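Complex record, three chains
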Amino acid sequence: MWPYVLKRILWFIPTLFAVTLIGFILLANAPGDGVNSLVMSSNSGGSLKTTQDIEQQKTYWRKQLGLDLPLFYFSICKLSEPDTLYKINDDVELEKAKKHIKTTGGYKNYLPKIVWYGSSNQYHRWLFGGYNSKGIIRGDFGLSISKKEPVIAIIKDKLIWSLFFSILSIILAYAISVPIGIKIARQPESKFSKGSQFILFLMYSMPSFFVGVLLLMLFANPDVLSIFPPSGIKPIGGYDDDTSLLEKFIDSVPYMILPLICYTYSSLAFISKLTATSIQEQLQLDYIKTAKAKGLNEKTIIWKHALKNSALPLITVFSSVFPSIVGGSVIIESIFTIPGMGLETVRAIIAQDYPVVIAIITLSSILTIFSYLLADILYAWIDPRIRITK
Amino acid sequence: MKSLLYPLLFILSITFTSSCKKTQSNTLVVHLLSEPDDMHPTNGASAVRAEINLYTNLSLLRVNYKTGELLPCLAKSLPTVSEDGLNYSYELKDNITWDDNSPITANDIVFTTKASKCLYTNNIGLKPYWENIDDIIVDSKNNKKFTIKMKRPYILNTWFWTDFPIVQAAFYDKQNVLAKYSNAQLTDSTFLKSKQDIKQWADEFNSPKYSTDTQFMSGAGPYKITKWDKGVSITLEKKKNHWSENCQENWYCQANPDKIILKLNNNNASALLELKNGLIDVSTMIDYSSFTELSKDEAFKKDFTLKLADTYNYTYVAMNMKPDGKKHKKLFTDVNVRRAMALLTPYNQINKTLYENNNKQVVGPISPNKIDFNADLKPLEYNVEQAKELLKQAGWADTDNDQVLDKIIDGEKVKFEFNINFMAGSKVWEDLAKQLAESFGKANIYVMLNPLDYNGFFGSVTGHSFDMSISAWQSSAPPEDFSQLWSSASWANNGLNFTGFGTPQSDALIDSINTCMDEPKRIALSKRFQKLVYDEQPYIFMFTQTRRVIVNKKWDNLEIYTEYPGVLLNTLKLKD
Amino acid sequence: MNVKQSYSSFKNILSKNRVLKRCVYVFILFVFISILAPFIANDKPLVCKYKGQWLFPAFSLKHQAIVNNEIINYNMAKDWKTLETDFAIFPPCAYSPNTIDADNAPRKSPFDEQIMTLKNGQIISIPLKYRHWLGTTQNGNDVLSCIIHGTKTSLSVGIFSMLIAGLLGILLGACAGYFQNNTLKIGYIQVLFLLLSIFISYFFCFIIRADKLSEAFKEGGLGMFFQILLIIYIFIQNTFILLRLGKWIDEKLKTDNRFYLPIDVIISRIIEILNSIPSLLLIIALSAISKPSYSLLIMIIGFLSWTSIARLTRAEYLKAKQLDYVTSCRAIGMSNYRIIAKHILPNVFPLLLVQIIFGLAGAVLIEASLSFIGVGVPLNIITWGSLLNEAREHFSAWWLVVFPGLCVFTLIFIYNKIATEISKLK
């Protein structure tokens, strides 16, 4: 098994690189001048009087953020452009320079050239570290523009909350839908099966924001029913200092129920359907029939034998449920004000804090990749045939 | 299915028991709309931070909320002023101490000043406020006495101390670095270049731990920040055995709630639910229509006091009077056009739909709640026909029948279409912009909405790269200094004068207001200045803002002030 | 199959399956509403007679009319209702989505008393024909009208983005599944020329035409769409010419060093990479980075959600390749492209259609979610999601939650139902 796992891991490395590259391309193309807003927002009293002062500040921040480097290891540009064009940071100046090049370049404007910059570039610095940066491989995602704090310090706690919710909701989804699926598989024509399938299908089509707002309106509203607290994730004022982890969890349970319903309900239909079909397939097979003939209890047959063999598709689904839950967190966290990554994404996008946005995207992609990897390994572990045929 | 039932029952039972778990008594929970960016004692700039500082820090002087006058705080009394209005002598109170029981002395005042003035510290936006201080001379015999020498006479020479907390020299400068250098040296960039120790101290002082880590926050106030759960809440706890227990007659010494929790919630609806559930005790941020809804709700009124209170704040729509003519066309250079825009603003409709008719229309650059307000100026009224007439006079007409006005400016045909900028994330601004857009459309002016984030918005107005932009000014009790918002110098160096208003005449008037220490004379000058702005109409002046104060009735001793933040949390007392 | 045949077989299917029939009818209803929206919900009257002259404001392309030397401005919004016309027929919902009715603001529920101010200042209870049947928003926009006009946005975002995703997914999936890694042989020179063509096209599209491109993306809309088409065209054309050239040189040089092009590996890798980025996050980030517009949103959704279609197509083509009819087609020397397009595609298309219709539901959900959190969509267009967004600030306004929410739900539900019913047909 290990050679197979090793091979899979090796396959994932280029994917990881590609994902970071996509993240970086987004970051590099984000609109607005981050340095400009950094400098101008601290200049609210107009104390940087001369443009020279402002320029000086900007140059300082460019150096700190590594924006004075070329973008990538190489660049493709016009033959008429000088190699050091990237050093002009001012938009207006750059426009002017480009115009000048265009008018004087002549035929050289239409010929390409490749410039090699080496490892001293923004992508390399962003990924592996460099001046004033440790690089994302050591967990440094740069500086948040709006909060002027390291990005990782901002998203660390938020990541934990989001992960907590996604893992809990995946577990919950399986815990609810696998029994339902089994029940459907055993008696496909019963009232329960038909009814539950229809209801689950209805729920599958419900947009989560609709359900979330409805839940709040109905169950956190003193005018209707006030069972659950309307927002946040902990009791007001946070936990007491000396509470244990279990007590913290119990304190937070009422806050978690409505969001968890939102996270979970839409994947129920999918997983239960899948369980039902794959168990039904298994039930047609000979070994089950033999087991039945042997007089084994049907329940044990299903739970012990059929389920184990139909676990493969369920694992596949696991890896596709995870990214959708991460995406869904944007909506659900902003409805229930859960201080997680989704809420932070919305805040960062409104504040045009792109380093944070990109860090979240890159990080959740990496997590997704790992969940795929995990699924692959589980797959191989459960079904040894995979290793050979794949 | 049975196996599922038990865990479900377990969860439900926990829910019912713990959702009833309210906060302990004598803990005040306050609704907060947004978190402070940082809590650095001298470098931070956000408004929320100023509110928290009211309770955790003390200043030399404070505002007397009842009268709107100055109140000595760390100082024994108001300063004695020299003849020329340049030297201010203070004496600090006796028996006032820091948390480590060392006395507060003049050295701390000197340190606060130096730390704020030093070029290396990261409070760029605040430095101009300190610029006027020339030096501080400590009495050689008594380290509680000192004299502040100012560079020029100015109406806010005493008032500006109310905004800045005094910080402890021994806490923030353990090596005593700044004491070695004078104010003049610290503001001399060539001198600083050779001084590594100052650079080292400043790097330490600017480091994020002083603005985010509660361990590194120290102030003289009766409360202390004990917990800051980012994005969730900030907890202030009352200090034990604090000297302020002996001066309960002053509001800044009082500390009635044992704990104040500032609970963050930027969603209006869920904040409303929290209020109704009794999870929040105080809110001044619920939106107007929810407030009206609540004030009709008898059950809610049984438990909560609801009051509307005036503020000194006002909303406005700024127009760019001096655009570059390329990226932003010269639309509002003519006063007739600016007046027409003001006439096209449906004031009553906006006041009704967005503010529940609670707000007063403002006419000039000052709130009607201030004493120097010029009541002779008549508010403009919505009048499409008159506006169309003014636009015609200014040369705007729809010559090509495309439903958008046009005019030849500098030989180029310009259409009357532009962007309205406003801060993204606020529903009220968005609705306001939509109403303006519809109304301007009726006079064939085409408007696009352009929501921007804080930095982008701020950059566009200070960089004069906008056509029209909606925002609000927050103001306070001290005499108004018009120079930041209206002097032409403030426009030239990208300050807060966005529109480009200002003539030598108006600049001179501002100067004479700022140096006039005679109150009635200053008021007369201020009224003249308001008339000047009114005639030029650089803004569409919109409304004063009202504070929607909601306080749980279990808290007594509620007084509501016009001055920010409206309710002093430390003075609220739990009913027995 | 010609049109007539397919229509009759379609009818045949519908008559057999009642659930499918109902769903398709609801879908057609949505389409009609979205097309006829300006005549169902508009603040301008359909027909009116003013001072003896007949006017057709709702149908007119002009913005004003001159009656007895008096200019009638067609975009006077609410004032149409107080205009002293001799006779006027308003659409069933007498408001445009952006019309502000301050009399009934903020947020009047469908059951609240609604009022109307006449020209002389008199306040009357609103006539039934002007009533806001589904309530109003904060600014006094009519919810019914917003919902009717929002149909167009929801439908078109779904359909156009899935058009892009479907084309892209089927094309790439078919290539990956049919050619795999062991069908397309390619010479070394050809590979060289392929890389060269990518380089040249990139240089031409993104370096030389950089200014025009960024300008078009700033403007958005049709110009941007045209630019993207142009880029695709340039890439295809260059690749085609240079590949031919490479082949020609290869043949001239008579090099036998040919190897298999691993199309399947390349496409599968791309799918894997795109799948590992949570799509909603990526869409939010992309649509926030550029100026919000629906045409851009359509393209972003389209270019990011083709992967599931491509995966299915690939699997189906892999299966089909083993079948007899394909092997016999190849045996008689039919060209690969003919087999892919004319023979396999019609057989696997119903299955792909199911996936595409599921994709439609997903796209509608994404659009509504974005408007709900108010990111990456233009503000001045009110959609189902943005109505729900308004309710997020005021839970007491249940009509802002229930009606638009039900609309989103219904559309997604019928898409999903149609897809499942089609998949059951086989």
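Note: Chain C has 14 helices and nine strands.
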